[in-house]
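Input chain follows. Return structure tokens only.
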Amino acid sequence: MSDTTLTEEAIARLVDRFYDKVTADPVLGPVFNPAVHDWPEHKRLLTSFWCSVALRAASYRGNPMAVHRQLPIRAEHFDHWLALWSATCTQELDEAGAAQMVDYAQRIGRSLKYGIGLNPEARGIGVPLISVSH
């Protein structure tokens, strides 16, 4: 881990501020608000997730891929989410901490996009799915 001021408290504050923005966001709110029935509890879960990622806390238990597969997410949601995350990280964290959290988010986003079939850089395997005979 880089030399940053990332702490559980800083990550909790980041998650709180970020998901307050998500709930009010015209692009992301309609995707996440219907799926999250208890935002305070969900923020605690997400704080545990990000602390496990950034601080190696090993406190998160869950399957983000399975959860995100159930949502009506499109590729542009990832770009919007990352832009909002990046801006919030810059507002809430020191420069090194923000850079680290954005890097983690970029990697996780790529993995999620790939896992739910939204990876525009994926190449096909070259085998036609449908054969048409004339």
